[in-house]
Design goal:
With 295 residues, the protein is mostly beta strands. The protein contains three helices and 20 strands. The chain has two domains: 102 residues, no CATH class; 163 residues, no CATH class. Strands 3, 4, 5, 6, 7, 8, 9, 10, 11, 12, 13 and 14 form a twelve-stranded antiparallel beta sheet that branches. Strands 2-15-18-19-20 form a five-stranded antiparallel beta sheet. A three-stranded antiparallel beta sheet has the order 1-17-16. The radius of gyration is 22 Å and the shape is globular. The chain starts with a strand and ends in a 5-residue tail after the last strand.
């Protein structure tokens, strides 16, 4: 079996952005709203932010397409967090439909927990966060402890967000009412929907080294090493596996002594592809995709 010994180091430098205090208007579902926006409590509590209330994200937020009618761009959904709250902003370029609860959202740690029918189709009416928006933008502000439970660190943790909107869409001068979902990942049910899978971002300053980690059969193909009190990973990757599958593996930072990974920070992925399959002198291309907070 031909193996590729892969020793990979990525030096990472991350800036620190302050996580400022929010305004005194942070009463659950009772902020002073502008005339264009109103809030309706779903089955879970949230804080409604108006367009003129700024958000101090940790690092960067991430913007996703608000997909309408499967293939139309209705606007954006922006997701970010500070050290206490998750923020999800839905922006509809042509506004929202004049109906009650025209914006609904579910947030969780496992997509399988999303309200859905037996065919896996989202049951939007059962989503726990709901609002009626008469302008073109609305922000949900949700305690991270409501999502992940009390205590502990809220980063870096895996998060799923499904945002459904009853929106208006203008195409070639024609405006129509459409249903929309925010995200870059397609659901697998019989009916179309999109969702967001994002890692919460840590607020503290972070500087470190990122390591490729082959997370398939790591006991066989990943070795721990130490150099100058820095611990990292050496990986063996099967040439045939790369040729047939074009795999990708995570890049982890914040590796502890003896290669401890309990406090690892996921910062991106590395993608492998064999461009020239000459087994004597193969040409292997590696591409990096860093998550927005660590670019």
């Amino acid at each position: 079996m031909r193996m590729i010994n892969c020793f990979f180091i990525l030096t990472l430098f991350f800036c620190c952005f302050s996580c400022g205090e929010q305004t005194a208007e942070d009463d659950w579902n009772s902020v002073d709203l502008n005339p264009k926006t109103s809030a309706i409590a779903g089955t879970k509590q949230f804080i409604a932010l108006t367009n003129d209330q700024s958000v101090n994200y940790c690092m960067n937020s991430t913007s996703y397409t608000f997909n309408a009618g499967q293939n139309m761009d209705a606007g954006t959904v922006v997701v970010g967090n500070d050290d206490q709250y998750l923020y999800v902003t839905a922006n509809s370029t042509a506004g929202f439909q004049n109906v009650s609860e025209n914006l609904k959202m579910w947030v969780g740690t496992n997509l399988a927990d999303m309200p859905q029918n037996n065919q896996g189709v989202p049951t939007n009416g059962q989503f726990p966060y709901k609002a009626t928006v008469s302008g073109d933008s609305f922000t949900f502000k949700i305690l991270l402890s409501d999502i992940f439970g009390e205590g502990g660190d809220y980063c870096p943790l895996d998060l799923f967000v499904v945002v459904h909107g009853d929106v208006m869409v203008s195409v070639n001068g024609q405006t129509s009412a459409q249903t929309a979902y925010g995200g870059d990942k397609k659901g697998t049910s019989k009916r179309w929907y999109y969702y967001i899978n994002q890692i919460t971002v840590c607020c503290e300053e972070f500087e470190g080294i990122g390591w490729l980690y082959k997370n398939t059969n790591p006991d066989l193909y990943v070795s721990c090493f130490e150099s100058n009190n820095i611990f990292g990973f050496s990986n063996e990757i099967d040439y045939t596996w790369v040729a047939d599958n074009k795999p990708n593996y995570p890049i982890w930072a914040n590796i502890k002594d003896d290669c401890g990974i309990d406090e690892k920070v996921y910062v991106g992925d590395i993608y492998f592809e064999i461009v020239d399959a000459n087994t004597e002198n193969p040409y292997i291309e590696m591409n990096f995709e860093m998550i927005a907070a660590f670019q």
